[in-house]
Amino acid sequence: MTTLSPQEVARPRAALPFFLSYGTIPLAFLGAFAGGFWVIALPVYCWYLFSMLDAVTGLNLDDASPDTPEDHLGLYRLLTMAWFPAQFATLCFMLWYVPQAPHLDLGARLGLFFGIGVMTGTIGLPYAHELLHQSPRIERWLGDLLLASVLYSHFRSEHLRVHHIYVGTPRDAVTARYNEGFHRYYARVLRDCPRSAWAAEKAMLARRGRPVWHLSNPFWRYGALQLAMLALALLLGGWAGLGLFLFQAGVAVWQLELTNYVEHYGLTRRYLGDGRYEHVQPRHSWNAAHRATNWLLINLQRHSDHHYKPDRRFPLLQNYPADEAPQLPFGYPMMTFAAMIPPLWRRVMNPRVRAWRKTFYPDITDWHDYNKGRTPLPHGAP
């Protein structure tokens, strides 16, 4: 393992592999124009190609110097900030073109927009996630626009005000419980996360002495942006375009929540009593060092460090060895595939969760309440 100096991090050759995510844009147009097999090129690219590249390129255990100054990260910022215009232009064109394309039947149109949903979910939402964690207002706005394009705007509030504060506790709906299959988890987060985000914003407004309907409540912005996206889809593609837009949004949300499921499955923070939990540590998120998928997902798999240092930009996220953070056996594409088959998932992951418990919490003998999310709520949780 080596540490890259700030000068090495700033070199274009260090940043260029992360631009592989932009390979999805020409594939979307190729699918629309050529039809046939090409309508499924996007999931093949994002899921299968990068899983094979992981097998060839192996693990990347090198770290960038965390002291790299902001002015050395210009190319990385360009990468994240340019994604929304690229995705938005692609989505708008597809909504206009695909419903009227004579060479695309219903199956081809659905196949193509399934791939568009894979792109907006697998690529667009990690970009939104990165942007929402940054301080500049323009970056947070771009993150909001990406979320609105898949009708999942509440994710901003839920992620920043709930998930990062309460991860690994019963207050965080996104922390998948031990033995909880993905399908049950998915129904739970679709039900609980919007109201969790609303409760967090309501509590924030109350602390400022403001009513829930105050204009500073971000749910006004979320609603306006999502309505604008729906109206645009209807304007560009008619009712067929609106249906295709809703379909891609559903696929994108499914992709996001598959990733959320993988990132924290079975990992809980120790309850200290009196509504207190231990501080978040790298061991409370699954880490994955698979090189190619980290290029595609802008280091999202270095999730252990992201939760430990949430304001750290993606090129500076650190890798952790097995004695500091639990390790996934494969990259996210293969892990999310396994998550769709709960018996396979439990066979792969439950022994790893039990090993994690023995390593980090050998003194805890009764995990029943942790497994069921029945330990007390954190003190002060809305």
From TrEMBL:
Signal peptide: none annotated. Keywords: Cell inner membrane, Cell membrane, Iron, Membrane, Metal-binding, Monooxygenase, Oxidoreductase, Transmembrane, Transmembrane helix. The keyword Transmembrane helix applies. One of its GO terms (biological process) is lipid metabolic process. The chain crosses the membrane at residues 27-50, 78-98, 110-128, 227-254. Residues 111-335 form the Fatty acid desaturase domain. GO terms for cellular component: plasma membrane. It is found in: Cell inner membrane. Belongs to the fatty acid desaturase type 1 family. AlkB subfamily. This is Alkane 1-monooxygenase. It comes from Fuscovulum blasticum DSM 2131.
